[in-house]
């Protein structure tokens, strides 16, 4: 009977990777800046709506001027709400796009590091989530804990099998040099 060859297995902590990749941090800053700019715009709209509301209250009830101002206010409010909803959808999609790009680059970088360093199998690890659930909830929801436990591919990782930092370094070097 022939014995199976040994297999070199490594892990990459996806959450740690996401938090340490320069490109992701830069994209998050860009999105935060855009979010702040849009929030300021919407805050100004809110102020305009408040001023309009005050102007409406000063007009004669039942007058054409009051009715016209009410219609103007309703249109402004509907427009602001629609823009806010569109903006939230855009931010969500943009965050998804950024994550997708990062994940695809990470996957290729993991492949390169594995080939270079002789790893046969590399698994995504997200250690710590279950412990975090117990730290943050008095009585964690069964479904949440069960799904988290069943979704884990890695139960334990020896520090020597964790190549997360190698992947972070490779991705950051590629980004910093424009690659």
Q: How would you concisely characterize the structure shown here?
A:
This protein has 179 residues and is mainly α.
Describe the structure.
The chain is mainly alpha-helical. A two-stranded parallel ribbon has the order 1-2. The chain is elongated, with a radius of gyration of 26 Å. It contains six helices and two strands; from the N terminus they run βαααβααα. The mean pLDDT is 86.
SSE blueprint:
Blueprint: E1 9-13, H1 14-20, H2 22-58, H3 64-117, E2 121-125, H4 129-136, H5 142-150, H6 164-176
Parallel strand pairs: 1-2
Helix pairs in contact: 1-6, 2-3, 3-6
Summarize the main sheet: 2 strands, parallel
What is the beta-strand fraction?
A: 5-15%
What is the strand arrangement across the widest sheet? Answer: 1-2
The number of strands is 2
Distance between the termini: 48 Å
Residue-averaged pLDDT, rounded?
A: 86
Report the total helices: 6
Low-confidence stretches: none
Radius of gyration: 26 Å
- Helices and strands, in N-to-C order? EHHHEHHH
The helix content is over 70%
- Coarse structural class: mainly alpha
What shape does the CA trace take?
elongated
């Amino acid at each position: 009977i022939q014995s199976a060859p040994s297999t070199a297995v490594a892990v990459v902590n996806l959450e740690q990777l996401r938090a340490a990749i320069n490109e992701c941090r830069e994209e998050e800053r860009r999105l935060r800046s855009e979010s702040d700019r849009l929030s300021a715009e919407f805050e100004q709209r809110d102020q305009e709506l408040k001023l309009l509301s005050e102007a409406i209250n000063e007009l004669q009830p039942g007058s054409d001027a009051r009715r016209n101002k009410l219609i103007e206010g309703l249109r402004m409010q509907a427009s602001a709400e629609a823009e806010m909803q569109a903006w939230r959808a855009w931010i969500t999609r943009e965050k998804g796009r950024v994550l997708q790009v990062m994940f695809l680059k990470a996957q290729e970088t993991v492949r390169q590091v594995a080939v270079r360093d002789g790893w046969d199998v590399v698994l995504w690890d997200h250690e710590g989530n279950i412990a975090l659930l117990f730290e943050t909830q008095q009585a964690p929801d069964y479904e949440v804990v069960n799904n988290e436990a069943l979704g884990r591919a890695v139960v334990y990782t020896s520090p020597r099998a964790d190549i997360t930092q190698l992947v972070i370094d490779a991705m950051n070097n590629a980004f910093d040099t424009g690659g």
